[in-house]
Amino acid sequence: MGIVLGPNQYGKAETRVVRVYRDGPVHVIRDLNVSSTLRGDFAAAHVDGDQANVLPTDTQKNTSYAFASEPGIAEIEDYALGLARHFVADIGPVQTARVQVEEYQWDRIGAPDAGHPHAFVRSGQEVRTTAVTVQGDQAWVVSGLTGLVVLKSAGSEFAGFLRDEYTTLQDASDRILATSLTAAWRYAEPAADWAGAYTEVRETLLERFANVHSRALQQSLWEMGKAVLEVRRDVAEIRLSAPNRHHFLVDLAPFGLANPGEVFHAADRPYGLIQCTVQRDDAGPAGPAWDSPAAFC
Amino acid sequence: MGIVLGPNQYGKAETRVVRVYRDGPVHVIRDLNVSSTLRGDFAAAHVDGDQANVLPTDTQKNTSYAFASEPGIAEIEDYALGLARHFVADIGPVQTARVQVEEYQWDRIGAPDAGHPHAFVRSGQEVRTTAVTVQGDQAWVVSGLTGLVVLKSAGSEFAGFLRDEYTTLQDASDRILATSLTAAWRYAEPAADWAGAYTEVRETLLERFANVHSRALQQSLWEMGKAVLEVRRDVAEIRLSAPNRHHFLVDLAPFGLANPGEVFHAADRPYGLIQCTVQRDDAGPAGPAWDSPAAFC
Amino acid sequence: MGIVLGPNQYGKAETRVVRVYRDGPVHVIRDLNVSSTLRGDFAAAHVDGDQANVLPTDTQKNTSYAFASEPGIAEIEDYALGLARHFVADIGPVQTARVQVEEYQWDRIGAPDAGHPHAFVRSGQEVRTTAVTVQGDQAWVVSGLTGLVVLKSAGSEFAGFLRDEYTTLQDASDRILATSLTAAWRYAEPAADWAGAYTEVRETLLERFANVHSRALQQSLWEMGKAVLEVRRDVAEIRLSAPNRHHFLVDLAPFGLANPGEVFHAADRPYGLIQCTVQRDDAGPAGPAWDSPAAFC
Amino acid sequence: MGIVLGPNQYGKAETRVVRVYRDGPVHVIRDLNVSSTLRGDFAAAHVDGDQANVLPTDTQKNTSYAFASEPGIAEIEDYALGLARHFVADIGPVQTARVQVEEYQWDRIGAPDAGHPHAFVRSGQEVRTTAVTVQGDQAWVVSGLTGLVVLKSAGSEFAGFLRDEYTTLQDASDRILATSLTAAWRYAEPAADWAGAYTEVRETLLERFANVHSRALQQSLWEMGKAVLEVRRDVAEIRLSAPNRHHFLVDLAPFGLANPGEVFHAADRPYGLIQCTVQRDDAGPAGPAWDSPAAFC
């Protein structure tokens, strides 16, 4: 019974790349957080301490900056595909590369239709994401968003659930439903317009969250995911992860006050955590199994 | 030489109060984080362990919820004034009360002019704040915002500064200027329209940040503060605190690439921290000195 | 081409359970953060909004508290196994349950050998963890730690690495090596003494980190993992995840000062991220693939 | 009625300075987070954009690193005094300087009495702090700690408090008392042994927290502060800030279980916040009023 090296990977995490396009008077900024992870022939680095096959993570950082200059950052999916393909094609020991990008959104200061040419304010809380995996000639693009905080103050119930000896929760016919949504959708093929696809998916998720009468967060997520697959033929599957941010009705009776669904305590922890995948029945393989850095252990 | 009790205060921090107004089909939500702090005749609680004068922080929490029901939350300044006046007027040992409120902003899901009646998405990153202090018959209202993240990619320089033996920084005639602004302005008198005043101050700060050609963050802050005092006659002073979020130009020359102000590394730490007050020369007293909880030690 | 529900799971995350054993004058505390996740027959909850099969996450929270009373918390592995087996055995629709526990460590105030009977101070930064998965009659126990921050100021080099056109890093024959270690090891069988096993693994990891002359973080991790498998026959595999917390030598030459490995800038981001698994060649199956909540999307 | 520049200050925040002493085989590390703030003749920088008087924050960072080399870091108080005196003495426009330092503690890996010469593990959660203010020839040293997390599972009550119409809390004769302590003490004169003083104050605080039968957190803080002044003649005053980290007894009666002070829910928010100063009646002036960066707005 021997001891062997199992799955391993390494990379540079959270390189903060900001690119300014300033060819004319109206500037454009792309504000990214870039992480690259490589898999391949790295056993000697572990077992023998031999680094001959190891491209330093410092070099990966440099490459992230260089690619932000040339070819630049059209959309984060293009940029991540370029980086990942470079690592697989040009660095001999690398068999698989994953590039993850978070993009922070900025609005122009001023009127929506007459914004400032070079002054910006961070918009929204959500972050646009992509995770691109390249292995040999194949590539998988999983784009998404995280931190989309939504709430509805009507149109949500939770009733008729399974009860056991530890159940004290009562049926709720009218409650606040709130979450900070994370979504990730895998493209079956490259989108013709990555930014347009992002906007359409985001708007579809919001529209369904708002308008589905929710009998549970599970149902809302299913309807949201299904709608995305219906409007985007190029999406093979979508995963949704939604903490149920509980809002508890405060008992004001001791103070002689009624509380007909008006005053709530917003709790931090614990929270429900509801997660599901909605996919086409011919979705095809999702690419190599890949632990996120957070999940590696 | 005796040992005595010095300044002391206590309260309930970070009560998360959510109020839904649902009188008609179109709901309104107010999403607050409320902290109250009391000063007064509390020596016995410390020195003798006698709690007879101590209103429990749990009661302060309850009061925050009850006041969210009645009289409700018109604007956070009204709500905080009501709470602070209650503690001073109705709780015998309390001589001074401070109520601090953070408000999280929500947009309606959907079109700006046709938003959903009861579904919302968190907007922006900045948080609207107020800190109300009541002592006897007097009240001071200091409202503000925190986390307003702004960046300009042109119109900023930093040159002609003092040099000593530890100076290696070069003059910069064109740099990125970025900050996460915190501002707090003291009202000389109650605003006729707290929400309108907030919006006007915020827009004035953004406009000046965008349009002042900045020879240093100090100058931008001064111009921003001065403009607020010019447009708001009811503001006696404004304090501005701005971390200088450095964006360093990446040296791409080793890779054969020019970098004419295009690719930057956004650094986390250290950061410059520029802080100033702009005030009227007859601003009047700012109220009792009051350590924020964060600054008490 | 239809649209179908894919993998899904739900549960209660981050229930903060504190148990005090106070049978005698000397108290013992167990301070936990508990998350449970269930998989099974929950399609109707999504597709039809029918909650008849759904055990509320509120009930899962209640169960976490009840089990902290009876049978109590001997070790977190026992507690998690009890909870997970209950969900699978007693809740019809549940096919698989995962219970993750973080435990925060406390020392007694006072002398190590004569500590206080009921007063405690939080010790260390690291958190002891376990993730228990139960499916039918089978159970997998993966215990670990996170946030073990270590540094060595000698005995670390990084040289002879692969160079390409984007490489600017120089060979380092003497550098600071620092990381915040996360480790997770899967038991091949239940440990006779979970706490003793934890202590032995932790000490083995620390000893190897300290005493292996490191030619790269990869090599340190391999040696650390290998040593754990050598001393613990009951461990089938161990996964290690280590951010390389870079310490950059500061250039003091402009100030007329030498810097022979003495003054460093500790950087936050970006960081290298090195991850590997060390396993027995007959390690056996690792249990059902299971996305962590963080990795679900 | 004119608009004028009021109080202002600027500096470099959170420079992460690590110093390794490696003169012999046994290394010593000092791991600091350094912030400097300057006040003086900086009106022109604001009003006219003239930076001639402004020492760049980048230079302040450089100086922090240079002083870590020469004269080095004996104790953080010495280091901060040296930096602050330099800014006031050598930089013309500077009238007052404040240097704040956080120090992270490391233990040697291995046996307490036979630790490793150059391998370390981060110890504890608390951070040692100092805030040194220099104005002209005067200096004030306020040292402290933050993040000292303590809990007692007996010897704490809260009863006989003031009740009003919003009070629902019941008297508690036996409860968990837990806090994350921040303390800051001002030296009347330089300590002969800064590190020894720190250790003695920390141990005194812990001993009193543990052994005072607490009728309220206020009483515990008073007794803790008083004891520090009794054992340290060189301390003029001490400020204590203590969030009351509530542990709520869980109602297990619905599950047929008693809960005699055994199973608790540890709540995050809201929390009580108790703050007091204990001082000598001839404590003397505390130095110039100085807003912490956090409290500036």
Description:
Four copies of one chain form a homotetramer. With 297 residues, chain A is an alpha+beta fold. Chain A has two domains: 9-136, Urate Oxidase (Roll), CATH 3.10.270.10; 144-297, Roll (Urate Oxidase), CATH 3.10.270.10. Helix content of chain A is 22%, strand content 40%. Chain A has helices at residues 43-47, 57-69, 76-90, 194-211, 217-231; strands at 3-21, 28-40, 94-104, 106-111, 114-122, 127-135, 138-152, 177-187, 235-244, 247-249, 263-266, 271-280. An eight-stranded antiparallel sheet of chain A has the order 1-2-3-6-7-8-9-12. A two-stranded antiparallel sheet of chain A has the order 4-5. In chain A, strands 10-11 form a two-stranded antiparallel sheet. In chain A, a hairpin with a 2-residue loop joins strand 6 (127-135) and strand 7. In chain A, helix 4 (194-211) runs antiparallel to helix 5. The longest helix of chain A has 18 residues, at 194-211. The first copy, chain A, is globular, with a radius of gyration of 23 Å. The mean pLDDT of chain A is 95. At the C-D interface, strand 1, helix 2, strand 4, strand 5 and strand 7 of C face strand 1, helix 2, strand 4, strand 5 and strand 7 of D.
Short description:
The structure is a homotetramer of 297-residue chains. With 297 residues, chain A is an alpha+beta fold.
Order of helices and strands of chain A: EEHHHEEEEEEHHEEEE
The fraction of residues assigned to DSSP E strands of chain A is 35-45%
Structural class of chain A: alpha+beta
The helix tally of chain A amounts to 5
In oligomeric terms, what are we looking at?
homotetramer
Please report the total strand number of chain A as a whole number.
12
Tally of structural domains of chain A: 2
Mean pLDDT of chain A: 95
